[in-house]
Structure formats: structure tokens, C-alpha cells
Amino acid sequence: MRVAIILNGISRKKSFFYANVYPQLKENFNIAIFETRYAGHAIELAKYAADNAFDTILSAGGDGTLNQVLNGILISTHRPYPSLGLIPMGSANDFARAVGLTSSIDQLLKVLKENSPALVDVGKVVCKDSNGSAVNRYFINTCSVGMGPLVVERLERNRKKWGATLSYLSSIITTFFTHQPQLIKCKTDLWEWEGKARVVALANGVSFGNGIYIAPEANLRDGKLNLFRAEDVPLLKFLVYLQTIKARKKITSNLVNYSLVTSIELSSTEKCALETEGEIIGYLPAKIHIVPLLIKFYGS
Predict the structure, then answer these.
(1) For residues 95 and 210, what is the distance between their CA atoms, to the nearest angstrom?
(2) Does residue 160 surpass a pLDDT of 60?
(3) Could you tell me the CATH superfamily of domain 2-90?
């Protein structure tokens, strides 16, 4: 099996990868490593690997690197697509939680040797960037509007100082104090909703933001996206709710909604950014839908 590894070139765990992971992988597979050098490079590298008919492409990094690798594969013209795999080396590794993957080298080898990759659903976003250019972006875990994009911006500033867990929590709480709920309209084929919201998220996986379980019952193969909508929630309730969902429990409140959708349109009269897996990709209005069983993934 020909395996391409797209490695996050600025990962703090890069030295660990070369010292401990790579030696064992190259003993078992025909390995080629492509190391990212700049923002967005993983998309280019994954497309190159897919175009050159690698059997499997492993993303060695966090959720952001995985998102780029996914998009690089899916813009390739080569068919069939290579199988996608993950070596969790990020700060949050939320999608790794969804598929039961850890940083264990033994687990990684067992997954690649003994497990067959299984088809999983993928979400797709169509929107525009800050210049008005069309954006078509896939996501395998989550996308969101509201607090999410602001948390992403703060996290980029904080993570180098405080580490992953504290940075995520600090960014979320700080954003809550400064973020004003935005007027957002959600429209599906079956219903419409419009109102002030702190977060509107679409999840294929179970969590985002380093273990915030907005979709604890998510299924990667059900052809559905899990919609999580937190409306104008007061501060004290929000702090309680945050602990509830970090404990993998659903919130019971008329200000929080859970539902399943296959497609949805989000719009706003305000400037409202949209993020996918920790990267701001564009602004509302946006159309988001599920693409069932699009790519094969190596999970546990």
C-alpha cells in the first residue's frame, strides 16, 4: 500500500512523529512524507498525492490539517479517491474523538493493517469570502457561525501562550463576554427559524472546540448533519450549559435546539463569519448540505 503522509510542518509534535511514528510506519508501508510550509499548503499537497494515485493519505496534525487534506483529495480529478486516515497531532483532535483514534502508534498500525476503510459522510459549504469570491469547502467534522469564528481568531492569538485546553476555555469565555448575539436566519425544506443566536453549528462529528459535545449522538454514516443552535443564552446559563455539553450531555432548554438536517441555508443582515474545523472560510449567506458516504476513512 502506497501511503502519503501530509505532516503539519509547524506542529509541536513533529519531532515525536519523526522519532517514533515514522520509523514504524516505514517498516510496514511504502511511505512518502509531504511537510506543509505555509497556510493552505496541505490542500495542495493532498491534491498532488491524490493525483498521483496514492492508495491512502494520512493527515498528521489537528482538525485544521485534516480539513485541508480532505479538501485537497476531493478537488483531485483522480478516481477513485484515496482513503483518508488521521494521525492525531493537533491541539484539540475533535474528529479523532469521533472515530475513536488516539495518539497510540500500536493503534495506528492495527487500524491500517487490520481495518478496512469505511465510507463516511462529508459536509459541504457554499458561500463567499471577504472579497466576494465563491467558496466551496468540505468539512468532515463541523462548521459554525456566531461565537465559533471569534473563538478561532482568539485561539490563534492565545494557544502559543497558554496551551490547548486553557486557550480553548479562555477563548470561549472571553468571546462570550464580548460577542453580541447575531440575527441569523436558518431555512430548510421543512422549517424556518430567525432570531438572535450565539452559536449555530452543523456537525458531522460529535464535538468541536476541544471537547464541546454539540452532537453527542452524531453518526458519520446516517446522511444527516446535526444542527446545534444556542440562542440568546444569558451568561450564567451559558457557563452551566458549557459544562453540561463538555460532559457529553444534551442541554434541556427552550433556548437551545438540536435537530437533524440534510441541507440548510444560513443568512444574516449582519456581517457573519463562518468557520470550518478551526478556519474562517467565508461569510453568510451560505448553503450547507451533507454529501453521503463520499470518502473512505480509516477509523478504529
Answers:
(1) 10
(2) no
(3) Probable inorganic polyphosphate/atp-NAD kinase; domain 1 (3.40.50.10330)
